[in-house]
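My main concern about presentation is that the manuscript never shows what a single data entry looks like. Each protein is reduced to its one-letter sequence and a matching series of backbone shape codes. For the editor and my fellow referees, an illustration may be useful. For illustration, here is how one protein appears when written out as sequence plus structure tokens:
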Amino acid sequence: MFGIVHYEAFLMTAIMLNLIPGSDTMYIITRSISQGKQAGILSVLGILTGSLIHTLLAAFGLSLLLAQSIVLFSIVKILGVAYLVYLGIRMLMTKESPAFDTADSKKLKGEKVYLQAILTSVTNPKVALFFIAFLPQFVSATEAGPLPFLILGLTFTVTGGIWCSLLALFASFATQKLRNNQKFSVILNKLTGIVFIGMGLNLLRAKANP
């Protein structure tokens, strides 16, 4: 079907892999805990957008260039590390709750959360390596087009989106009372900053081998 082999096995594997905590789920949960449901869902949408971008890159062979070029891989990795550490430091320096009062500022905040999630996903070379290592296992050897990669990538993204949305809703609901406390809200932001810095430093261990 469309150059895909063992789609049912891929679907089950994708679901199981999405259940395993990773940097994306950690980012979403952290945002949900520190900023609530809206930020959590927007983070999910941003991560999913990043996943779709990685799907397109893998489908058209661009991710393979990333894996084969140590220089390009290192540049992307450094950008990802620097961005996560930058976000972490900004949150550590926060002295007040990030809550906004006006609709405009809330909208701006939402846009930033969404864009930050996209950048976090796109600048993570581990995701690109995963796609080029995992997806080809379920593509027929006689298929040379991008269609099966697109279908498999979309499947993986949708299953991950459902799971991550549930995580975001649960995390935001479970910590709602804590966020309403001004002092604890600041503490949550600082903890979020520490997590982001840790994610960035962990990204340094990535190697250019799928």
